[in-house]
UniProtKB/TrEMBL annotation, chains A, B:
<dbReference type="InterPro" id="IPR003781">
    <property type="entry name" value="CoA-bd"/>
</dbReference>
<feature type="domain" description="CoA-binding">
    <location>
        <begin position="12"/>
        <end position="107"/>
    </location>
</feature>
<dbReference type="InterPro" id="IPR036291">
    <property type="entry name" value="NAD(P)-bd_dom_sf"/>
</dbReference>
<dbReference type="Pfam" id="PF13380">
    <property type="entry name" value="CoA_binding_2"/>
</dbReference>
<dbReference type="InterPro" id="IPR032875">
    <property type="entry name" value="Succ_CoA_lig_flav_dom"/>
</dbReference>
<keyword id="KW-0436">Ligase</keyword>
<dbReference type="GO" id="GO:0050563">
    <property type="term" value="F:trans-feruloyl-CoA synthase activity"/>
</dbReference>
<dbReference type="Pfam" id="PF13607">
    <property type="entry name" value="Succ_CoA_lig"/>
</dbReference>
<comment type="similarity">
    <text>In the N-terminal section; belongs to the acetate CoA ligase alpha subunit family.</text>
</comment>
<protein>
    <submittedName>
        <fullName>Trans-feruloyl-CoA synthase FCS1</fullName>
        <ecNumber>6.2.1.34</ecNumber>
    </submittedName>
</protein>
<dbReference type="InterPro" id="IPR016102">
    <property type="entry name" value="Succinyl-CoA_synth-like"/>
</dbReference>
<dbReference type="Pfam" id="PF13549">
    <property type="entry name" value="ATP-grasp_5"/>
</dbReference>
<dbReference type="GO" id="GO:0005524">
    <property type="term" value="F:ATP binding"/>
</dbReference>
<dbReference type="InterPro" id="IPR013815">
    <property type="entry name" value="ATP_grasp_subdomain_1"/>
</dbReference>
Length: 704, 704
C-alpha cells in the first residue's frame, strides 16, 4: 500500500513560489544567498524578495512585507534576526503562506528567552497554517527542481548532481559537510534538508516524507536526538515498507559522546542503546563515522539492489590481499563458499599456480591476459552460489593501457550477472571510477572498506517492517491481576503467567501446614524463601532453604526461616514463605523491561552472572516485537555460544527463549501505562525441547 | 648505542653499479623496465645490460654474461626465466657480485621442483657471497638515489617523492598497490622493497636494515608469515631502539583469512594471536586494513613526533560532529579533559553560545571571525593539558576565501605549540591539503579517522624495547628438579615454586598417617585429591574430598578416596593422595605456556570459567617479559573489571598477578628446551596485598 507524501511538506519541498523575507543585495548576506543560488541555477518558480527598505533586489521587484503579496505563496524564507522573525510571519494572512524556513539562530538553542521566542513563532505559524523548518537551520535544497532555500556556502563551492539520495541532517554543519562530501564522491541527491531546532518539522517527518517521495531511493539521515519516538518509528517503518534503505548517523554512542551531545543540543538524547535497538529493528543501517555513512549511501545508491544474501565471492590478482579481504569478510559475518569443483579445475587449467578456492587468486596473469577476469567470474558465478562479488585489481587499476579490459569486464558483468552486485577495489583515476559506477559497479580504493560495506548492506530489506505501534492508551486487560501498590514475588510470577511467560509454579504459604500442602502439590524437593517487601537479600538473613523434602523437614525449614528472619530483622513485614520446586538444570538468563522516556517499553536480554554484571553483554529491542526480532537479540550477545551448548552442555531451547521474550514484549507494550519495569532473574533456559522457566521476577508499577 | 646497517644489504639497496641479466630493449619486458626507469630517473651509477644476443641495449654496451665483466658489481638483477637464473649467477666469480635481485617466478611457490631450483640458486649465491632478494619478487627502489631495481608498472604511472618512509612487502601485488597509494596520498618514501619468496633476505632483514638506515624515519611492513621468529624480534627491537615506528599489516587475523593465507603462501603462517602479541610487545602498530596502514604511516611521517600522551583536545565549528569525534575518542581510549576554567570563560565571552567543554564548539562564528580559531587553540593549550589537538572545520575547508585564515592558523600553531600535534578535518583541495601537511599538520576528510589515528599513535615509543632474546641453548638450571618423564600435580607445583611462582603448599601422602602429618603441618581444613597419571577427572571417581578437618576425618577421607578410586578404576596407577589447604577466596585465573613453532614459548592469560572457555577472552605475550608487559596483558582481557573488584568483591592483587606471569615467562624461556607446555588452572588472584596462589598445574615435557 503506497501512501502519498504529506502535502504540506510537499508544498514546502517543491514550492511553486518563494518569498525571501530579509532579502538582500549584498553578496554573502544570508538574505542574498538563496536569491543568488535560485537565479544562478534557474529555479523555475516565482522569486519574491521581501524588504521594506528596497524596491528592487537582484533585478526582482521587492515587497515591503508578506501582507503586501496578493497571492498565496508556497514558501517564505525568513532571513531576519530572531526578534523580527515572528513579526514578519505575523503579517501573513491565514492560508497565505504554505511553509516557512527560518534561517536565523537565537531561539531555543540560546536558553529560556530564545525558547519563548521560538514558542511565539510556532504559535503564529500554527494559527496561519504554516509549516516551519528550523529555526536555526541552513534550510533545504530540492536538487532536481533547483530549489536552493539555503544560505549554506556549500553549493557555492560546486553543486551536487541530481540523484536518488534524500539527505536530512539535524545539524547544519554536518549537513553542509555531507553535501560537500557527496559532491566529492560523485553522489547524486534528490533533496538536502537541515532541520535545526526542529520547532515543527523534525528529522522523522523528513524521513517519512522522503520515503514517499518518488525522486528518492535511498535516505541518509543525521540525528542528535529525538523527542517523538513513535513518530520516528512510523518514519522508519514507512521507509522500510517503501523499500528505501535508511542510513543513519546518530551521535552519542559512548558516554563521552553523549555528554558532548547533551551539552550541544537541547533535544533529549535518550539512551543510545535504545536507538541502536530501534535501528536494528527497523533495518536502518547505523553508520559510526562520516566515511561509513557515505560508503553505505554510495553502495545503496549505486547498486540498484543490495546483495540478497551473505555469500561473497572474492577474486584478486594478489593472494595476500585476498587473505586480508577474507579477514574482513570473517569480521563482518560474510560467508566465503568455495567455487564449484569444475570452476576451480578450469581456473587451474588456465593459470597453473592460481588458487581456485575463495578468495580466488588469478595472479598477475590477469594483467597480461585480458579475458581471464571475465572467464573466472563467469565460472565462479555460473551456479548461483554467490550474492556479491568483490574484485581486487591491485595497482593495475591505475594503468590506462588496461582500462579497456576493466571497462569490458564491468560492462559484461552487468549484462551477464545483473543479480550479483560487483565491487572493484583499485586506484582508478576519478573519471574512470565514475564510468564504472555508471555501470552499476562500486569502486573502493581500500579493499577492506569494500568488504565491510558489502557486509553491512547484504540481505538488507529482506524482512517486512515491524508493525506500526498504535498510539491508543494502554490499559489493563479485563480479568488481569488488579493493579497493586507493590507486587511480591508470587504476584509478579502470576503476572508473567498471565502474560504467557512460563513461570515456575510457586505458592505463598502463610504457615507450616500450608507449606506442606504446597510441597505436596508441587511433588518434588522444594526451595523455601521468605517473602517480605522489606527484605532484598534473603540469604543474608537466613531466609532461604534449598532442597527441602519430607513433611518434617518442611515444617522445620519453615520454622527456621521465620525464626532467623525475626532475629535478624525484627521490624520486617513478612507476607509468608514462598514454596517452589527446586530449579532444573539450565543456563541462567536475565530478561527485563524498562521504560524509555522517548520510545516507551524496551526489552533487555542477557546471560546471568558475569555476562550482565561485568561484561555488560546485553541486547535490546523496542516492545512489541515478534519471534524473529527476539531471535536476533538472543544471537546478538557475545555469550551466545553458551546457549548453543558450550562446555559439553546440551544446546538450550532457543526457540522457547525467543517466544518468552516476544511474550514479555507484548505484555510490556500492552500494559505500558501500568508497569514501569520488569526484571526476570533468572530466566532459566532449559535444554532443547524443554522450554524456559522464569524462576524469580520483580515488577514495578508505573507510578511507583 | 647505534648499530651500523648490515653492509651487505647496504650494498644491495644503495648500489654503485647494476648489471641487468636478461636485459631487453623491448618496452614492457621485465628485462627492459629497470633499464628504462634507471635511465629515465637519472640513476647516477653504472648500468650494465647483460644479454648474449645483443651488443647495445638502450644505448648501453651489453655484455654476454656476468663473467665478461672485469670489475665487481654491487647488484645484479636477474630478469631471466627460473631455469636460467642459477646458470646466470653461476658465471659470477666469488666476491664479484654483491647481491642479486631475482624477479622471475617458478621457484618454491610452484611446488617441490621449484623449491629444489630455489635451493640450487641459494647455494650458488652463498658460495659466491651474493645476498639474494626474491625470487618471485618485484624487486626494490631506493627513491632518493633513483635506484629502480624493479619491473613493477607502478612507478611508470607516476613516481612517489623521496621521503622518510621505508616500505617493505612480502607480496609484490600489495607492494605495488601500496606504492601507488603512497603516490596518491602524497607520502614520501626512502625505500620500497618487495621480498617475494624470501630465499635469503626476508621482511625482518629489511626492517632491521631500515631501522639503521639514516634516510628512513618510519617503517611500513606487510607480511604474510615468518620463518625465523628470533630474527623478527631482533628487527622490531632494532626499530624500537632507533625510535623508528613500525606499522605492520599481517594477513590471517581470522580463521578465514588464515586459510586463505595458507593456501597462498608457502611460508608457515603461525598462530596469528602470537603475532598480535609480538607486535604489541615491541610497540609495532598493526593495521587491519590498507587504509589504516596508510593513515598510521601518514601520521607518523607527517608529525615528526607523535603525541606524547593520550589527552586529546577537540575543537570544532559543529557541536554534533564534536560529539561524533568524542564517541570515537572514547572507543580508542583517548581522554578528553576539559579546558581550564578561565579558558572556557574567555571562549564564552567571545562566542556566547559556544560550548567551552571538550569538545569545544566555537560554532559557525569561526568562519566570520578569522582570529577565533587561533585564540581558542591558544587558550586551550596554554597550560599543557593536551597531547594533541583535533579540529573539525566542516564545509568551510572547501572555501578558497577562508584559506588564508586556515593557513595562518596552521602556521601559527606550529610556531606556538610545536609540542602539540595538530590534525584538521575538512575537505581541502589537494594542493591546499599538501600545504598544510608541509606545515606538519595532518588532514583527514573523515574526522573519525583523524581521532582513530591519533588514538593509535598516541604515546608510541614511550617504552624501551624488550631485551633481545639470547639464542644460547636453554638448559635445566643446576639444582632444579630433574627432568622426569611425567610430572604429577605435586611435582608440577614444586617446579612452579622453583620458578618463583607462589604455589599452594601441598604434600603427597602415601598413607593415612602421612596425610594426617601433612594436614598438621598445613594447619587448616584440607582438600584431599587422588594423584594418578591415569585419572584426569578425579571427582568423577570419588577421588576428591573437600574441607576435611581432624585426624579421624582425614583417615576416613583417605580411605574413602582409595576405596572409591579402586572400585571405579581398578587398573589405575596411584601415586598417593595430595593434601593441600582449602583455597582462600579469590578470582580464578588461568595462566599457560605453549611453544609456538616460530616464536618459542608464549604465555597465555585469562580468567577461569566462561571467560576462557566460551568467550575466548585471553591475552598472549612472548616469553620472556617483565612486569609492564604482564600488566598490559592482564588489562587487555575483556573481563579485566572482575579483577578490579566487580560485584562488590575487593580488587585483586594485580601487581602480584603480573609478577607471577613475568616469573612464568622467565621460567618458560629459560627452560624452553625442557618443557613444551605449562597450564596453571586455577591461578587464584587474592585481594590486594595478599598475592596470588597457583592451586593446580599441569607440566608437559618438551619431548612428550
Amino acid at each position: 500500500m503506497t501512501q502519498l507524501p504529506d502535502p504540506s511538506l510537499s508544498r514546502l519541498f517543491d514550492p511553486q513560489g518563494i518569498a525571501i523575507v530579509g532579502a538582500s543585495a549584498t553578496p554573502g548576506k544570508i538574505g542574498a544567498m538563496p536569491i543568488t543560488l535560485l537565479l544562478q541555477h534557474g529555479y523555475s518558480g516565482r522569486i519574491i524578495p521581501v524588504n521594506p527598505r528596497a524596491d528592487i533586489i537582484a533585478g526582482l521587484p521587492a515587497l515591503p512585507g508578506l501582507d503586501a503579496l496578493d497571492d498565496a505563496v508556497d514558501l517564505a524564507i525568513l532571513a531576519v534576526p530572531a526578534a523580527h522573525a515572528a513579526q514578519a510571519l505575523e503579517r501573513a494572512r491565514p492560508g497565505q503562506v504554505g511553509a516557512a524556513v527560518v534561517f536565523t539562530s537565537g531561539f531555543s538553542e540560546t536558553g529560556s528567552d530564545g525558547a519563548a521566542q521560538q514558542e511565539r513563532l510556532c504559535t503564529i505559524a500554527r494559527e496561519r497554517g504554516i509549516r516551519l523548518l528550523g529555526p536555526n537551520c541552513l534550510g533545504f535544497m530540492n536538487v532536481r527542481r533547483n530549489v536552493y532555500a539555503t544560505f549554506s556556502p556549500a553549493p557555492a563551492n560546486g553543486v551536487v548532481a541530481p540523484g536518488g539520495i534524500g539527505m536530512v541532517s539535524q545539524s547544519g554543519a554536518f549537513g553542509a559537510y555531507a553535501y560537500s562530501m557527496a559532491r566529492e564522491r560523485g553522489l547524486g541527491l534528490s533533496h538536502w534538508i537541515s532541520t535545526g531546532n526542529e520547532a515543527d518539522i523534525d528529522v522523522a517527518d523528513c524521513i517519512e516524507w522522503l520515503a514517499r517521495d518518488t525522486d528518492t531511493r535511498v535516505i541518509m539521515a543525521y540525528m542528535e536526538g529525538c523527542r517523538d519516538g513513535a513518530k520516528l518509528r512510523r518514519a522508519l517503518a514507512a521507509a522500510r515498507n517503501a523499500d528505501k534503505p535508511v542510513v543513519v548517523t546518530k551521535i552519542g554512542r559512548t558516554q563521552a559522546g553523549a555528554q558532548a551531545a547533551a551539552s550541544h543540543t537541547a533535544a533529549l538524547a535518550g539512551d543510545d542503546a535504545v536507538y541502536d535497538a530501534l535501528f536494528r529493528q527497523y533495518g536502518a543501517l547505523r553508520a559510526r563515522t562520516i566515511e561509513e555513512f557515505f560508503n553505505l549511501g554510495y553502495a545503496l545508491d549505486t547498486w540498484k539492489r543490495p546483495p540478497q544474501g551473505r555469500r561473497l565471492g572474492i577474486f584478486t590478482i594478489s593472494g595476500g590481499v585476498g587473505a586480508l579481504m577474507a579477514d574482513e569478510a570473517a569480521d563482518t559475518g560474510l560467508a566465503l563458499p568455495e567455487p564449484a569443483a569444475d570452476a576451480q579445475a578450469r581456473l587451474l587449467q588456465r593459470v597453473p599456480f592460481a588458487s581456485g578456492r575463495n578468495p580466488v587468486d588469478v595472479t598477475g596473469q590477469a594483467v597480461s591476459e585480458p579475458g581471464l577476469l571475465l572467464a573466472t567470474a563467469d565460472d565462479m558465478l555460473a551456479d548461483g552460489r554467490y550474492d556479491a562479488l568483490a574484485v581486487f585489481l591491485a595497482a593495475a587499476g591505475s594503468s590506462e593501457a588496461l582500462w579497456p579490459t576493466f571497462e569490458t569486464f564491468a560492462r559484461q558483468m552487468q549484462a551477464r550477472h545483473p543479480g550479483v552486485p560487483l565491487a572493484i577495489s583499485a586506484l582508478f583515476p576519478p573519471a574512470r571510477r565514475r564510468e564504472l559506477e555508471r555501470l552499476g559497479c562500486l569502486v573502493f580504493p581500500d579493499p577492506s572498506a569494500a568488504i565491510r560495506t558489502i557486509g553491512a548492506v547484504a540481505g538488507l530489506g529482506s524482512g517486512p517492517a515491524p508493525g506500526v505501534v498504535e498510539t491508543s492508551p494502554a490499559t489493563a486487560d479485563a480479568g488481569a491481576l488488579p493493579l497493586l501498590d507493590a507486587y511480591n514475588e508470587v504476584q509478579a510470577m502470576e503476572l508473567l503467567r498471565q502474560a504467557g511467560l512460563p513461570a515456575s509454579p510457586c505458592v505463598l504459604a502463610g504457615d507450616a501446614d500450608a507449606a506442606v500442602r504446597a510441597a505436596a502439590s508441587l511433588g518434588a524437593a522444594c526451595v523455601l524463601k521468605v517473602v517480605s517487601p522489606d527484605i532484598t537479600h534473603k540469604s543474608d538473613v537466613g531466609g532461604v532453604k534449598l532442597n527441602v523434602q519430607g513433611d518434617d523437614a518442611l515444617r522445620s525449614a519453615y520454622a527456621d526461616i521465620l525464626a532467623s528472619v525475626r532475629q535478624h530483622r525484627p521490624d520486617a513485614r513478612i507476607d509468608g514463605v514462598l514454596v517452589a520446586p527446586m530449579a532444573p538444570k539450565g543456563v541462567e538468563c536475565i530478561a527485563g523491561v524498562h521504560c524509555d522516556p522517548v520510545f516507551g517499553p524496551v526489552v533487555m536480554f542477557g546471560l546471568g552472572g558475569v555476562f550482565v554484571e561485568v561484561l555488560k553483554d546485553v541486547s535490546f529491542r523496542l516492545a512489541p516485537f515478534g519471534r524473529d526480532d527476539a531471535l536476533a537479540m538472543i544471537r546478538e550477545i557475545k555469550g551466545y555460544a553458551l546457549l548453543q551448548g558450550a562446555r559439553g552442555a546440551p544446546p538450550c531451547d532457543i526457540g522457547a527463549l525467543a517466544e518468552a521474550l516476544a511474550a514479555l514484549s507484548r505484555f510490556a507494550h500492552a500494559r505500558r501505562a501500568d508497569f514501569s519495569s520488569v526484571e526476570i532473574n533468572p530466566l532459566l533456559a532449559l535444554p532443547e525441547g524443554q522450554g524456559v522457566v522464569a524462576l524469580d521476577a520483580v515488577v514495578i508499577r508505573a507510578d511507583a
